[in-house]
Specification:
The complex is a heterodimer of chains A (257) and B (310).
Chain A: H1 3-23, H2 25-28, H3 30-51, E1 53-54, E2 57-58, H4 59-89, H5 93-97, H6 103-129, H7 140-164, H8 170-184, H9 197-203, H10 207-220, H11 227-251
Antiparallel strand pairs in A: 1-2
Helix pairs in contact in A: 1-6, 3-4, 3-6, 4-6, 4-7, 4-8, 4-10, 6-7, 7-10, 7-11, 10-11
Chain B: E1 3-13, E2 19-29, E3 33-37, H1 44-51, E4 59-64, E5 67-68, H2 73-78, E6 80-83, H3 95-105, H4 110-123, H5 139-151, E7 157-161, H6 169-184, E8 188-192, H7 196-202, E9 205-210, E10 213-219, H8 220-224, E11 229-237, E12 250-255, E13 258-264, H9 270-278, E14 282-288, H10 292-309
Parallel strand pairs in B: 3-8, 3-9, 6-7, 7-8
Antiparallel strand pairs in B: 1-2, 1-4, 4-5, 9-10, 11-13, 11-14, 12-13
Helix pairs in contact in B: 3-4, 3-5, 4-5, 7-10
Classes of the chains: A mainly alpha (257), B alpha/beta (310).
């Protein structure tokens, strides 16, 4: 395929993905807006006012970056895992498999679909947070790069989950039992400086900690970990997951007999 | 003449060690209307699945218009349109979006895709439904949608896996007319079907596949010449015929007003009618007991089964 044809195929997949999550906005865009508003009210306002400062900022300011990142992570992952699994389940993945669209374009299209939803929800949550706190941006570049790379990473994760999934149960196991605990323990609601040394060490094995803290650094200018190291970890994860997902597509795992 | 599809020594062994294809080979010429027939589980869908890149082959080679499906994947796929057996589009998408999206996967610009989608949806009587969700369509409309989707990139080779399954006779005949029209316009067509009447009236060449092997690959005409007998059903008057004996023909009285007559190859019908007339039996109508290809197909598959059992 020529570059122009590749671009058309890629943009077709992305448009289809965006059409999907906007068509079912009541299931995709509205719930995170409501959930995060409740978090802002309960944890930020009601409980946060009694907690005092965290990392040199009031509690509401501290949790906003973490909650934005949490929305981006769960929605990027959720979009690709459910969309690609449905495509497999309804067998309309065959529309793509019979076409000359190369696998790397298929993967990139689905990932950008996931990133689009992740960023759309992240934007909505950011707007909602402005009702509760003033949002400063310490480093625009770090903020945008982190949110983008994190969204790509979890879109890739969702894709790999969908490839292996055989039932709708399989697409909820990882978000429920791995993603949610890691997100909650990844420094969204607290600074790991509050933890004993041992648990600080354990927390550093959690990849989400790096993403939340890098994003928080971009907004507030404070972080529990080294931002350069965190970036390296995120980029490395992205490269590895992209190659794994592409290999699975090339093998036809779960999509070709 | 250009070969539209070349299949060589194609073998497929599934994970459970079931050998679905045992090294089959066949060619389909450009412009042909080709039937791939066989009983359920014979290997038809596996063959078409491999050609369509939906099933991984174990070994062998597939070329579409000279493009190797492995080495020149994009070119081979571009030449191919596929209408699968089961509905495989997103039921929640709009009819127009499904066709336009498929065009996009082939790198067709949005404006051209829109024009072609309009053309094929109109051609297949679905233009009025373009803004309806696919789930709202009837079974016949869904089949036509899959044909429109397969044609939107204007492939040179169209593969149809049982396209008229579950479609009423009127719609089936209109689909036949449409397929004949695009075949005459130059599109090579490969068809699998359980309606052998369909294969007989549409196709010029045929491959019969059974237990993963090709048992016949020839023209429909020469295949039908292998028929040794043909069975006719005659509705007769008076309504109360009790017994009939016709010299030179095997005749059976199905009920008091229906005769079943077996006519050997080369044997005329004039003598049959003369003898019936002399016995004061009037023939009011006459038809084949079953379609000729069907008789032949059944006998071939049965023979193949007997060979296997021996």
């Amino acid at each position: 395929m020529s570059n122009q044809e590749l671009w058309i195929a890629f943009s077709t997949i992305v448009r289809k993905e965006i059409r999907r999550f906007t068509r079912i906005w009541a299931q995709t865009l509205l719930p995170p807006a409501i959930t995060m508003t409740l978090y802002f009210i309960i944890f930020g306002n009601l409980i946060g006012s009694r907690i005092g400062e965290m990392g040199g900022f009031n509690y509401m300011e501290f949790i906003v970056p973490g909650l934005i990142m949490m929305s981006v992570i769960t929605n990027s992952y959720g979009n690709v895992v459910s969309s690609f699994f449905s495509t497999k389940f309804q067998r309309n993945i065959e529309e793509l498999l019979v076409s000359p669209t190369p696998n790397w374009v298929i993967l990139s299209g689905y990932v950008l679909g996931g990133v689009s939803r992740g960023l759309a929800v992240g934007f909505i949550v950011t707007l909602l947070s402005l009702f509760f706190t003033k949002l400063q941006v310490h480093s625009f570049g770090v903020t945008v790069a982190t949110v983008l790379m994190t969204s790509i990473l979890f879109s890739l994760g969702g894709f790999i989950n969908a490839v292996f999934a055989n039932s709708f149960d399989d697409i909820s196991i990882i978000p429920t039992f791995i993603l949610t605990p890691l997100t909650y323990l990844g420094g969204v609601f607290y600074s790991i400086q509050l933890l004993p040394d041992f648990w600080q060490g354990v927390s550093q094995l959690n990849p989400i900690l790096y993403m939340v803290n890098t994003f928080r650094y971009g907004i507030l200018g404070v972080s529990d970990i080294n931002v350069g190291f965190a970036f390296t970890v995120i980029v490395l994860f992205n490269v590895v997951l992209f190659l794994v997902a592409l290999k699975l597509l090339d093998m036809g795992k779960g999509i070709r007999q | 003449m250009t070969i539209a599809l070349s299949v060589k020594d194609l073998r497929k062994v599934y994970g459970n060690d079931f050998e679905a294809l045992k090294g089959i080979s066949f060619d389909v010429q450009q412009g042909d209307f080709f039937a791939l027939l066989g009983p359920n589980g014979a290997g038809k869908s596996t063959t078409l699945g491999i050609v369509s890149s939906l099933v991984n082959k174990t070994s062998g080679k597939v070329e579409v218009f000279g493009f190797d499906l492995e080495k020149d994947k994009a070119e081979a796929k571009r030449s191919l349109g596929v209408v699968p057996q089961e509905f495989n589009f997103n039921m929640f998408e709009k009819v127009g979006d499904i066709v336009r999206t498929q065009a996009g996967y082939y790198g067709i610009p949005v404006a051209v895709a829109a024009q072609r989608a309009e053309f094929y949806l109109k051609k297949l009587g679905l233009w009025d439904k373009r803004d309806d969700r696919a789930q709202m369509l009837s079974g016949g409309m869904k089949r036509r949608l899959m044909i429109a989707r397969a044609l939107v990139h204007e492939p040179k080779l169209l593969i149809l896996d049982e396209p008229t399954a579950g479609v009423d006779i009127e719609l089936r005949r209109s689909m036949w007319a449409f397929l004949q029209e695009i075949n005459e316009a130059g599109t090579t067509i490969i068809l699998t079907t359980h309606y052998l009447e369909e294969a007989e009236s549409l196709c010029r060449n045929i491959a019969i596949i059974d237990h993963g092997s090709i048992v016949h690959n020839t023209s429909i005409k020469s295949l039908l010449q292998q028929l040794t007998t043909e069975t006719f059903i005659l509705d007769v008057r008076p309504d109360q015929v009790s017994s009939v004996v016709i010299d030179g023909y095997s005749v059976q009285l199905d009920d008091p007003h229906t005769l079943v007559v077996q006519v050997n190859k080369g044997q005329g019908l004039n003598d049959l009618f003369s003898q019936l007339e002399s016995q004061k039996i009037e023939v009011t109508s006459m038809r084949n007991k079953s379609n000729r290809l069907e008789e032949l197909f059944v006998s071939m598959v049965e023979k193949n089964l007997e060979k296997k059992e021996v």
